[in-house]
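Hi Prof. W.,

I finally got the DUF4147 domain-containing protein prediction working! I wasn't sure whether to trim anything, so I left the full sequence exactly as given:
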Amino acid sequence: MNTLNDKAARLLLRRMFDAAIAAAQPALCVPPALPAAPNGRLIVIGAGKASAEMARAVERNWQGPLTGLVVTRYGYAVPCERIEIVEAAHPVPDAAGLQAARRILERVQGLNADDTVLCLISGGGSSLLPLPLEGITLEDKQQVNHALLQSGASISEMNCVRRHLSAIKGGRLAAACHPAKVVTLLISDVPGDDTRDIASGPTVADASTCEDALAIIRRYAIDLPERVLEVLRSGRGESIKPGDPRLAGNEIRIIATPQMALEAAARVAAEHGVTAHILGDSIEGEARDVGKVMAGIALQAARRSQPFTAPCVLLSGGETTVTVRGTGRGGRNVEFLLSSAIALRGEADVYGLAGDTDGVDGQEEIAGACVTPDTLARAFAAGLRPADSLDNNDGHGFFQALGDSVVTGPTLTNVNDFRALLIARSED
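And this is what came out:
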């Protein structure tokens, strides 16, 4: 029994993706997490792709006075009346982010114990708060970010290095707010929801060390300027450690997570008579390898009704990596999908969609793409060689040529990657 035709399968996948994004909207998840009114001032600061929309949600739901400043990605600003919104570059930082980080630190100087700092943090904050330690330049930080993004290191490993080169991350921002109370609202975009890794943890104590960062640099043979390495070797880059009295009494509240987004997508599937199986919200690894594995599971379900019976959809989240070897336009979600498509070999009634919930896969203003049973056939007819596109890390070029890109525009949130393989019918 064919439960879904091509059009219906595509539509269902897009509805699931949209539901995942909607579940993490700040307007929904910020208001219940707001702190009690302080005896003193409320100062709002923040960084990330969702920070501007988070700031707007604060303004709309806060009854008393407040002031603030947050920095978000270019194109992600929204109108606010009392909180200043600044835009800067992501994923490679720029001077606007550097200046915004300095100004945020200035905003929290001279506070007292009656004041509260409300810190709004979401994915992307690492690049948007690029204030380096003394002896390191913005150009150095740009080189570090570029090298990390090309290396194949996991997001946790990348953020470990970033924390130890920053004057604001690794708990340093919270320490600068002392003696004011700090309440941090986090929208998680990292595997396992490790608070240290969300925007590299500007308000979170960090037990990792400079030596840990050096080990990561050695592991991936990352070529960095000597003055950057000296900061790590000397120990000058040590972050704020657990137990530091300046962070005592501070509160961390995770208000949206990849798991919540996947569960929202699963509910949409159920409404359409399709059973959803969440394989994990923190799956990491090379995107092309994860694509092969998920395709293998989908094939077993389609051909053997194992481990799941169709109609069903396999959902996963987390953040895969791409070790860049080619000259293509990249994107970890489209690399995952292209690898999946090659492994599926045109299997009937198997469809897929993968995208970044922030609307940007890699450095492209494209969220992701979709695959259908005829993806490979259409590609060959258009003169495309899927394996060559994969080898060249050119998933975006491949899917855009087929008209299968998924474009959302700025979603104003970020709970990492969304991956779905839909098995519309089994062969039994």
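DSSP finds 16 helices and twelve strands in the chain. Does that look reasonable to you?

Thanks,
D.
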